[in-house]
Amino acid sequence: MRRPTLALIALFAASPVLALAPAQLKCEGLTTPIAIQSLNPRLSWLLQADTQSAYRLLVASTIDLLNRNQGDLWDTARVQSSETIQIPYQGRPLAAATEYFWKVQVWDRAGAPSPWSAPATFRIGLLTPQDWNARWIAAQPDGETPAIRMPVFRRSLRLDQPVRRAIVYISGLGQYELSINGSKVGDAVLAPGWTNYRKTVYYNAYDVTTALKTGDNTIGVMLASGFLDVPNIPRRYTKLVESFGQPKLIARLLVLLQNGRTLDLVTDRSWQSLPGPIVVSHVYGGEDYDARLEPLPGSDWKAALEVAAPGGRLVAQLNPEIRVFETFHTVATTQPQPGIRVYDLGQNFSGWPRITMRGPAGASVKMIPGELLAADGTVSQRSSGSPQWYTYTLKGSGDETWSPRFSYYGFRYLQVEGLEPLKVEGQFIHSSAPVIGEFSCSNPLFNRIHKLIDMAILSNMQSVLTDCPHREKLGWLEESHLLGSAVMYNYGVEGLYAKISADMADAITAEGLVPDIAPEYTVFEQGFRDSPEWGSAVILDPFLAYKHYGNRSILAAHYGDMKRYVSYLAGKAKDGILSHGLGDWYDIGPKPPGEAQLTSKEVTATAIYYADLTALASAARLLDKPADAKAFDAQAQSVRAAYNARLSNPTSQTAYAMPLALGLAPEDRRAEWLAQLVADIRQHGNHTTAGDIGFHFVIQALSEGGRSDVIFDILANPEAPSYAAQVAHGATTLTEAWDANPESSQNHFMLGHAEEWFYRYLAGIDVDFSRPAEDRIVLRPTPSGDVTSARATYQTPYGLIASRWSKQGRKFVYDVELPPNTTAKVLLPGGTPSQRIESGRHHFELDQ
Asked: Measured between alpha carbons, how far is 40 from 43 in angstroms, rounded to an integer?
C-alpha cells in the first residue's frame, strides 16, 4: 500500500463572521444557579468568535449597579488572559441566601474590546445551620420503630400581596416530593441525592415564585424511606438492611412580596403530619400505594414533632437532578396465564411503570417488572433481584393513573395481576446531566453498540454511578474511573463527579481505606470492600474530572484523601507489590465469571497503584506542591521497578495491556508486548478475555499502539462473547456478562469501554486538560475496518468540537470545527505530518 499524500488543505473561518462576544455565562458550571455552596464560586463563559486576549469581570449587588457598569462587589479591571473557564470569585465577601449579578467583557487578539455580555445571576445557598433557622421535623419521636406508612406534612400560608420572588430550600429524607397548592414543585424525582446521612445531607432549592398566590396557600411534603431506612420486609427483596433513622424533613421558604416585605417560613411545630397513602416504600423491594388513604378535608392531622438532625452537614446537592426523560409504550401484550398479562415495553431501562386503571374502590393491581421472560411467558427476575413488585389500590373515582414515586427498577417487561389496565407505559428516569456528545458512523452494528452502551450509562447514571438499576443500585467505584471518559464524552457530569468524590471522602476510613462502594451503605468483606482497582477512584476520579473539565477545585478539595489512600496502599504493599482485591473481575476463563481467573491480582493491583502515584504526582504539580510531586514521582518509579522485576512475563491480555497503557512497560519490551497482546486476541478468534478492569486497558493499549484494526475486529465479531453477540441476542442495554448470561444483570455498563474509542479514535476527538496548553486538543480520525465515515460532536468547556470524516473513492476527506479561543493538533491517517490549526472550520483531503 502506498503512503497517503496530502493533496489539499483548505482552512476557512466559520461563516458568517461573528464579532467577539462572551455568552453562555455560568457559575460553578450552572446557568443562573440559586443555591451555590461556595463563597468563591468559579465563573466561566463561552466566546462566539475569535481569540480572547483579556477580560474584565463585574459582580454587583443589584442589577441597577451592574447596568451602570459598577461592580461594587468585584471589578477585576482588565486582566491579560485568554482563560474563559474556572475563574474563582475574589471580590468582597458574599452572603447566604443572596442573589448576585455579573457580566463580562473581553478583548480580542488585536486589543479591540467586545460589548458587555448579557447579565447573569447566581445565588448563594444556605451555608451554616444558622442560615436555616429551621428545625428537623418528623411524624413520631426518634428512636421508635419507623411507621410502615410513609408520612405527609403540610403548612398553610396566607399572603396579602403578590409575590416578587420566592425560593424554597428543602431536604426530605430519605426522599421527598414537594407540592404547593396541590401541584408538584419542579420535575426532579428521587430527591435529594443519596449520601451517608450521618456525614452529608443534600438539600435542593426551587424558585416557587409562580407557584404561590395571593390569599391562602398550602405547602405539602410527602416523604419516603429511600436509602435512609432500608428494612427487611418479608417476601420482598433487599440487597442490604440498614437505617439512619426515620423519615424527616427540614425546609425554609423565603418570600419577597411586591411591597418589599419579606416572609420567612421554616419547618417547626407549626407544621402538621399524617400517615400517607404510601403503605410500603422500599428502595429495593418496591412500593405499595393505597389511593383511599390520600388526605381529604377533615383528615386527622397532628402536630409535627421537632426531632434531631440526622447528623450530616447540610449542603446544596452536587449531582444533577434525577428526572423522568422518556416514556416507553407497550409494543406487545401476552396473557400467559388467566388473570396475568405481560406487557413488553421494547426497551430495558431504569424507571417505573405508569398505568391507567378504572375500577371500584379497594380493587388492586400488582405489577412485577423484569428484564427477561421465563419459559412459561411470565416475567422473570432471576437477573435482577427477586421478588420485587408494585401495588396500587384504587379509590374508585373514574380513570386513575399512577406511577411509583420513590422506588425504581431496571426492566423491560411488566407483569400485571388483578384488574386489566387501560394503558401500560414505562417511564425512563436518570440523571439530568446535559447531553454534550454525539457519535455515529457508517457501520450500523457500531451504532447499535453505541446505543447499547449509552442506554446502560443512562440507566445507571443516578445519584451515583450504579452498576445496575435493580438488584444493587450501589456506587461500585471501579466503573467511575474506568468508564469515566465514556460517560464524559456523552454527558456533562462535572457535578456528578464532584458528588462521587464527596461520597468517597465520607467513606474513607481512619486508616485510609477507600471501600469499593460509596456511599458505603453496607460493609462488605475482603476484596468486596478493599480492592485497589475500586478504591483508587478516590485519586483517579478527581484527576479524570480535571482532564475533561480543567477543574482544579475537585483536586484541591480531595488532595488530602488522595494522599491518605496512597499511604494506605503503601502500607499494604510488599516490596512495592500489591496482591489483594478482586483483580480483573468477570474476565473470561474456564470457570463462571467472578474474581480474576487469567491475571494475577498482583498485576492489576500494582498497576493501578502505579497509576495512582503518577496521577497524584501530576495533581501535586497542578496544585503547586513541587516537593510532593517529586516524592510521588520517586515512589512511582520504585513501584515500576518492582513491577518489572517481578511481573515482567505477562501471560494474559490484561497483563500485556495494563503496563502498556499505564507506562509501566520497559521501552525495549513495548513492541514485543503489543505484538503478544494482538497475537493472544487473534488466537482467541478476535475475542477479548479481559474483564471489568482489563478491557479498559486492552482498548487503550491497542488504540495508542496504532492497532485500532484489532479493536474493529473485536467489536465486529458476531460470535459470543462480544458486543455484536449481545445485540444479536436481543439485548437493548449492555449486559453484565460478555455472553449475556440470563443469570446476570441485563443492564450494566461496566464493559462499555468501546465508547471511548468511538469518540477519541474512530471519530478522532481527544481533549485532555492535563497536557500542555498547545496539546490539549488532539484530532486524530482513525479509519478502521469497513467503516467509511464517522462523525462526533463534543461540547468542551471552551465550546463545541465537531469532527467528521469520510472515504470518497481514493480520497480521505476530513472536516472539523473548533470553538473560538482554541488551537488543536491534527494527526491525519497514514503518517502524514501533524498540522496545527486554530478555531474555525477546516477541511482536509488526502489521496490514499
From this structure: 9
DSSP code, position 798 = T
The count of C-alpha atoms lying within 13 angstroms of the C-alpha of 411, restricted to the half-sphere facing its C-beta, is 32
Q: Give just the sign of the alpha carbon dihedral 283, 284, 288, 289.
A: positive
Q: What are 257's strand-pairing partners?
A: 163
Contact yes or no for 347/337 (Cβ under 8 A): no
User: How many other β-carbons are positioned within 10 Å of the β-carbon of residue 529?
Assistant: 19
Phi-psi region of 715 (alpha: psi -120 to 50; beta: other; left: phi over 0): alpha
Q: What is the pLDDT of residue 148?
A: 84
Instruction: State the angle between helix axes of 670-683 and 708-716 in degrees (0 to 180), rounded to the nearest 10.
Output: 20
Angle, CA of 222, 500 and 632, to the nearest 5°: 160
DSSP 304-342: -EE----SSEEEE--SPPEEEEEEEEP-EEEEEETTEEE
Tell me the DSSP string of 598-635.
Answer: SS-HHHHHHHHHHHHHHHHHHHHHHTT-HHHHHHHHHH
Query: Three-class SS of residue 84?
Result: coil
DSSP 692-703: TTHHHHHHHHHH
Residue 12 clears pLDDT 90, i.e. is over it: no
Mean of pLDDT values over 811-824? 96
pLDDT given at position 11: 35
Rg of the chain, C-alpha, whole Å = 28
Among 478, 296, 410, 259, smallest CA distance to 732 is for 410
In angstroms, the CA 97 to CA 203 distance is: 13
Which is nearest to 750 in space by CA: 465, 527, 491, 488? 465
pLDDT mean over 812-828: 96
pLDDT at residue 762 tops 90: yes
> In terms of Cα–Cα distance, which of 668, 76, 733, 848 is closest to 349?
733
Tell me which residue of 746, 748, 749 sits closest to 370, measured CA to CA.
Answer: 746
Per-residue cell: 477: 467505584
Closest CA to 381 of 286, 242, 476: 286
Tens-digit pLDDT profile for residues 424-453: 999 999 999 999 999 999 999 999 999 999
For residues 96 and 103, is the Cβ–Cβ distance under 8 A?
no
Listed residue (194, 182, 834) closest to 521, CA to CA: 194
Report d(CA 505, CA 203) in Å as an integer. 18
CB-count exposure of residue 355 (10 Å: 0-12, 13-18, 19+): buried
Tens-digit pLDDT profile for residues 710-752: 999 999 999 988 999 999 999 999 999 888 889 999 999 999 9
